[in-house]
Structures are given as structure tokens and as C-alpha cells.
């Protein structure tokens, strides 16, 4: 039995075992990884009753902790969401294996043939909050990319994550892959996170998935590279040429489908020319749907809105709240997004191609959308099967981080007795 109170020793053991597993995974056959993920999917579905039972303990913990309704929604698992986990595992299993893929090849006059091929990163540390499905997503994507992974779920999802992790290990066992390929830190002790962030001998990259507090902590304390997933301060701009039907449909879905996810719209920018038409219709629909609209001075004329304050610009609510502001033109909208956005996801609603091109060229977020709900900001919806997060930085990975983004590359250089003069 492990001593869960000796955190440094516990984490060093996890790290050493992950590194050993990663050495084997680097050349594991694609079929073995696929078999492991398919078997894990079968295990999740077969054990869905036990997973829901474990989740009930987490929900009770969350209620006692005073989590918001949106956070409780992120935490909750039912049979439908477990089916989604199963489908995600199977989708990742069915993808082409990125490891060994040749991304570029060329010949040199010296007689050298050079290939750049995808190779695993090694050991990935994933730190996440609330959503227990991330256990499956992160474990699956890291395995597909040939990486070992150490998972650290939020304290509120401790039991759910443990039950899902057991299914992933069952899949590894069925495929004959090292069971240490996917490890879950078996304690809620926050000291484990601090240890993980400084394990430069074992960890190759850290992926934080959570709120601003978590990501800020990771960026401050990590001594290993970080794929930053910052806040989803998501803007939707209703242009002068916005179609009213599309605007209503897209904005309502972007805000209300699930308010607690990072792709939920948090700020609505409305071109002054359509305030009394498209803008009013959208805001009234949001209010009728139970959304609190925090409006600037111009939009406060609409009954049911409440005054916005300076703190409402650049805020991630993760709740049934949205800020709303009038802008004079597209450039003012772009300026607002540059000042208050988080480089995550932003959207324009318009029928004007020139406006779309200007928005796409001048807004530098990881994901830009046109006439589409920002709730599509998700690796699964991008065809990646799942995602480990939305990277908002600009180094290595950006946007949804799927299996291919969890690889690096190496150069394979072949000659026939070539020498350099």
C-alpha cells in the first residue's frame, strides 16, 4: 500500500514509472494502442453504473463545497454523458496514429534524404478541474500519441476520475501495454500539484485545464513547458450585415447550450446600425431564456437588462450571464476583443464577406468563427475525437490539442556514404 502522506516520494515514484512506460509506448504498434482504447471504451460502458455511483459521491462533495450550478453541471455524469465518453474513446481509437507520420521529406544535392517525422513528447502531466470526462479524453489522446500521462483531476471529481481511470487501465491491460502508461494521482493533496510542476527529470510538458486561478498557478510555478489553456472570454460580434435569424439562433446556442464550458459566449458586441433590429431581438431572446444581460448605457433601454460595470468587460462568467455592448463599427469590435479577449474563441455574425475577411485577419485568437456557435470550440467537434484542452498560447500547439498536437518531431537523415566537404 502506498503512503499517500509522503507526497514527494509518491510523485517521484509516479514519475519514474511514467518515464519507463513512455520508453515502451514510443514504439508501441498502432494496433495495440487502438485495441487499448477500444477495450477501455467497452469497460467504461460496462461499468457505467459504478461510474455514476462514484459520481454521486462527487456531486455530494460539490454541493457541500458550494459549487455553482454551472460547475455542478460540469461535474455531473449520467448515462448520456458516459455514452459521450465511450464515443470519444472510440473516435480517438479509430484515428490514424500520428507517431511516425512523415510531415515533410526532401532531398539535398549532397545526396541526403531528410524526413521529418512525428514522435511522442514523452511524459505529459495533465491538471484539470471538475469535468471527470477529461480523465478519459486526456488519457486517450496521450496514449494515441505514444505518451505516458500523469493525470491530476480536481478534488471535486476525485471518485469519478478514479472510476474512469480504472477502465483505462483495464484497456491497457487488455492490449498488453504498460499499465503505468496512464496514471492518476491518488490523492486530493494539493502538494502533489506543486511536486508535479517541478519534476523536470520525468515530465516533458504540463497541460492545465481549468479556470484562471489554476492556469495562473501552473504558469507561475511550473519548471517544465506548459500548454496554456487560459480563460474562454468568448466574444460574438453582430455586424451591420448580420442575418437576424442566424444571429438569434447562434447567439442563443453559444450562451445557453452549456454555460459552464470554455466555448460559451461571454460578451456580445452589437454594431450600432442593428441595435434596434437584430440586437434587440437577440437580447430579448436571451433574457427570455433566463440569461442575465449586463448592458452598456445604450442597451440599457431594453427592458430586463441590468447596467454593466467596468468589471464586466473581459470576464468569464461560466454562468447564465452575458455582457453586451454597442460598437460603432467592426474595427471598434476588433479593438474591444484585443483589449478584453483571452485569445481563445471569437465569432462574427455577418453576410458581408469583406467583414469576415477583416475579422479573420485582424483578430488573433486561436479559434475564429463565422456564423457558427462558439460551443463548437471543441476538439471532438473539430474531428479530433477529443481534446486535452484549447491552447491559447502560440508555441507548439494552439487551439484544440488533440493527439497530433501531443507529438514533437525528429529528423531522419539517410545518405549513401555521404561526407561533407
What's the layout of helices and strands?
Blueprint lengths: L6 H19 L4 H17 L1 H18 L3 H7 L3 H16 L7 E6 L5 E8 L2 E6 L4 H12 L3 E5 L5 H18 L6 E3 L6 H7 L7 E5 L2 H10 L12 E5 L5 H13 L8 E7 L3 H14 L3 E4 L10 E2 L13 E7 L2 H11 L4 E5 L3 H10 L4 E4 L19 E2 L7 E2 L6 E8 L7
Parallel strand pairs: 3-4, 3-6, 4-5, 7-8, 7-12, 8-11, 9-10, 9-11, 12-13
Antiparallel strand pairs: 1-2, 2-16, 14-15
Please provide a written account of the structure:
With 421 residues, the protein is of the alpha/beta class. The chain has two domains: 235 residues, Aldehyde Dehydrogenase, Chain A, domain 1 (3-Layer(aba) Sandwich), CATH 3.40.605; 143 residues, Aldehyde Dehydrogenase, Chain A, domain 2 (3-Layer(aba) Sandwich), CATH 3.40.309.10. It has 13 helices and 16 strands. A seven-stranded parallel beta sheet has the order 10-9-11-8-7-12-13, sandwiched between helices. It has a four-stranded parallel beta sheet with strand order 5-4-3-6, with helices on both faces. A three-stranded antiparallel beta sheet has the order 1-2-16, with no helix packed on it. Helix 3 runs antiparallel to helix 7 and helix 10 runs parallel beside helix 11. The longest helix has 19 residues. The protein starts with 6 loop residues before the first helix and ends in a 7-residue tail after the last strand. The model has no long low-confidence stretch (mean pLDDT 94).
Number of helices: 13
Assembly category: single chain
Total tally of structural domains: 2
Structural class: alpha/beta
Rounded average pLDDT: 94
Listing every helix as H and every strand as E from the N terminus to the C terminus, the arrangement reads: HHHHHEEEHEHEHEHEHEHEEEHEHEEEE
CATH A-level architecture of the largest domain: 3-Layer(aba) Sandwich
Instruction: Using the coordinates above, name the CATH class of the largest domain.
Output: Alpha Beta
Biggest sheet, open or closed, and with what strands and sense? Answer: 7 strands, parallel
